[in-house]
Amino acid sequence: MTPPTDWLTVPLSHIEEELRNFDGWVLCGGHSVALLTGKDTRPHGDIDIGVFRTRILDCLNQFAEERVFLCRQGTHERWRGGKVAGDIHDIWVTDQNLTYWLFQIMIFDDREDQVFYRRNPRIAWSKKHHSVNIDQIRVLNPFVTFLFKANKNTQEEKEVHDLIKLIEGIGMFTSLQTGQTPFPDPNSNLQPPELTHE
C-alpha cells in the first residue's frame, strides 16, 4: 500500500473517539499550545499526541495494522504488529479508509516513573509532571513542548509561532498568578488556563 500524502483535518473529539479504549495519551503540538494559552491563533494541519514507549503497543493495538506507519529517516513503513524498534520516535496513523493521514503519535522514552529527553537523557522528569489537565484533556507539559520545539536545528514557521505563544501565555499566567502586572498589551484578552497536575 502507498502511504497517503495529505492530512485530513478533524476535530479533537474525533481523535478522542478513536482512542476511546486507550487512556495513555496526551495532546501535543499546536493544539496543545492553543489549549494552554487559551487562544487558537494559527491553523493546524494535523493533530499530535504523545504516548510513553512502554505503552505504545497498547495504543497501536487500537487500530488495524494497515492504518499504522512507522516513521524512520523520512520514510513511512507499515507496521506489521509486534514490538516497535527503539529508533522509531514518530508514528503516523491514517483514517479508516486509508486515504488520509489522521494524526501523529510522538513516542516519549520512559522507564518506571521517569520520562527521558532522548537528545540528552540527563534531562528527565517524573510522569506525574509530564502533563497538565485542561478542560478534561491531558496536555503535554508546556515546558516539555518548549524543550522539543526549541532544540531543533531548524524551526518551521509554525514552531516559531508556537514558541512565542508559549512564552507569552506562560508569562501572562505567571504574572496573574503572582499578582504582578504583566507587560501591557492593549490588544490582549488572554485568560490563563487553570493548570492542574495530572
- Tell me the name of the CATH class: Alpha Beta
Count of helices? 5
Q: Let me know the average pLDDT.
A: 83
Q: Strand percentage, roughly?
A: 25-35%
Biggest sheet record: 8 strands, mixed
Describe the protein's architecture and organization:
- This protein is α+β, with helices and mostly antiparallel strands.
- It has one domain: Beta Polymerase, domain 2 (2-Layer Sandwich), CATH 3.30.460.
- It contains five helices and eleven strands, in the order αβαβαββββββββααβ.
- It has helices at residues 12-18, 29-37, 56-60, 142-150, 157-178, and strands at residues 25-28, 48-52, 68-72, 75-78, 90-94, 101-111, 114-116, 124-126, 131-134, 137-140, 196-197.
- A hairpin with a 7-residue loop joins β7 and β8 (124-126).
- α2 packs parallel to α5 and α4 packs antiparallel against α5.
- The radius of gyration is 17 Å and the shape is globular.
- Residues 174-198 have low confidence and may be disordered.
